[in-house]
Design a protein that fits this description.
The protein is mostly helical. Among the domains are: 148 residues, 3-Layer(aba) Sandwich (Rossmann fold); 104 residues, Arc Repressor Mutant, subunit A. It has a 3-stranded parallel sheet with strand order 1-2-3. The chain has a 3-stranded antiparallel sheet with strand order 4-5-8. A two-stranded antiparallel sheet has the order 6-7. A hairpin with a 3-residue loop joins β6 and β7. The radius of gyration is 32 Å and the shape is elongated. It binds glutamic acid (GLU). The site of glutamic acid has 7 residues, from loops.
Length: 468
């Protein structure tokens, strides 16, 4: 089994492309075959090195490791010229000197008659060279018969050759066109299963004819449906993020996006969560649904939470570190990220939120949230806060169990509810009244920061009392 992902580097790696790539990857892995990456950069105007990089980065982030490539089509122009020459020699292709004007006039005429625009074969049987004109090379498509293939997703597809025309395989400057390069590459690279978006389904019969002209067996084809937005329209930027790397920025784990994308159009019973090994074991391209699937952000969020909670904390921490760095927070100025993940994974939807809500454990505390300070840092809180501060200062071991006990005993001694101490403490430690459980908050803040912040809150209360 040899599959390939063949993106055109004309933009970022979007989720549709990524899903195609992961289907290729899984099918290759399932069959212990080879997964090839080929960059289709023949469109020199629209291809950019930044897009190539975005594709490579997106694939690396998703863990889509390929066995061969990246191959670049721009490095294979000699080979395409060689094969075009071979087709010309064998009479399977011919030079066409028709001017742009002629082709344009033909097109207009056909449109007027309500016909599909197609080349009329004017130069097919021996045309005279036109002085000063560089010809294109056209493939001599069969005039009759049918092209039939069994698409692994869509089933049997047949199209009559009368529907197809003689397509240009090399432009006047000699540069090759898509339908030709794809065939040459897939043949040279030994690809025997082509998995791609169903926007290419109309190209397939043309490509099959080229395989036959080259005396080669066409590969198997699987055309996967596109991804729709929640409103049923083709997924686009207006539905939110469509770039794979945007999902990284938004705080999703690659495991979550991977799992999400594989389930978009593929299923195995009603199982939702799959380890990589399970996907490889169960995946079969023939089980991909032929109907387009709609993107559902709530489900992605749900998977992200699942993976934040269930992956080894060290693994989640590795991705969280990336977000910290991006936000200019030094992850080494606070509790180990694994500890943070253990506490916060249940409380947030994304790693980005986790990083945002955890700043206070790594940086200086800014101003108190006004409402929280007004409500909780009041003179009545001074004595219990001081008492709990003293008790905490005496602790020899700073662990959640002992921290909890210190707060509880301080409350019990005073006959007050634990919240009467925990809330002022929260504001003292984090600047606001919402945080993880008080023992975990203290634990993450650490001894030094906690004691210093309690002193600061006591000073704040004193200043407030003095001003009244
Ligand atoms: N380069 C084409 C694209 O990005 C894919 C071609 C193929 O998979 O055959 O749409």
């Amino acid at each position: 089994m040899r599959t390939r992902f063949a993106p055109s580097p004309t933009g970022f790696l979007h989720v549709g492309g990524a899903r195609t790539a992961l289907f290729c990857y899984l099918q290759a892995r399932a069959a212990k075959g080879v997964f090839i990456l080929r960059i289709e950069d023949t469109d020199l105007e629209r291809s950019t090195p930044e897009s190539v990089q975005a594709i490579l980065d997106g694939m690396a982030w998703l863990g889509l490791d390929y066995d061969e490539g990246p191959y670049y089509q721009t490095q294979r122009f000699d080979r395409y010229a060689e094969v075009a020459g071979q087709l010309l020699d064998e009479g399977r292709a011919y030079r066409c000197w028709c001017s742009k004007e002629r082709i344009e006039a033909l097109r207009e005429e056909q449109m007027k008659l309500g016909q599909k625009p197609r080349y009329d074969g004017h130069c097919r049987d021996g045309a005279e060279p036109v002085a000063g004109v560089k010809p294109v090379v056209r493939f001599r498509n069969p005039l009759d018969g049918e092209v039939v293939f069994d698409d692994l997703v869509r089933g049997r597809i047949s199209i009559s050759n009368t529907e197809l025309d003689d397509l240009v395989i090399a432009r006047p400057d000699g540069s090759p066109t898509y339908n030709f390069t794809v065939v040459v590459d897939d043949l040279d690279m030994g690809v025997n299963l082509v998995i791609r978006g169903d926007d290419h389904i109309n190209n397939t019969p043309r490509q099959i004819n080229i395989y036959c002209a080259l005396g080669a067996e066409p590969p198997a084809f699987a055309h996967v449906p596109m991804i729709l937005g929640s409103d049923g329209a083709r997924l686009s930027k207006r539905h939110g993020a469509v770039s794979v790397l945007q999902y990284r920025e938004d705080g999703y784990l690659p495991e979550a996006l991977f799992n999400y994308l594989v389930r978009l159009g593929w299923s195995h019973g009603d199982q939702e969560i799959f380890s990589r090994a399970e996907m490889i074991e169960y995946f079969d391209i023939r089980d991909v649904n032929r109907k387009a699937a709609a993107f559902d952000t709530d489900k992605l969020d749900w998977l992200n939470q699942h993976y934040m909670r269930s992956l080894p904390p060290g693994e989640v921490a590795r991705h969280l570190r990336w977000h910290f760095k991006r936000m200019g927070i030094d992850p080494d100025q606070g509790p180990p990220l694994e500890d943070l993940v253990g506490v916060q994974a249940d409380r947030v939807k994304t790693l980005k939120e986790m990083a945002e809500q955890s700043r206070v454990f790594y940086e200086e505390l800014g101003d108190y949230d006004e409402g929280s300070a007004k409500k909780h840092l009041r003179p009545v809180a001074e004595e219990p806060l001081r008492a709990v501060g003293n008790r905490l200062a005496d602790l020899l071991v700073w662990d959640p169990g002992r921290l909890n006990e210190a707060v509880r005993i301080t409350a019990e001694e005073r006959g007050i509810g634990m919240g009467k101490i925990a809330q002022p403490l929260r504001v003292a430690l984090t600047g606001a009244a919402v945080s993880p459980s008080i023992d975990k908050t203290l634990w993450l803040a650490g001894r030094e920061r906690s004691l210093e912040r309690i002193s600061r809150a006591l000073a704040f209360i004193a200043a407030r009392a003095a001003a009244m």
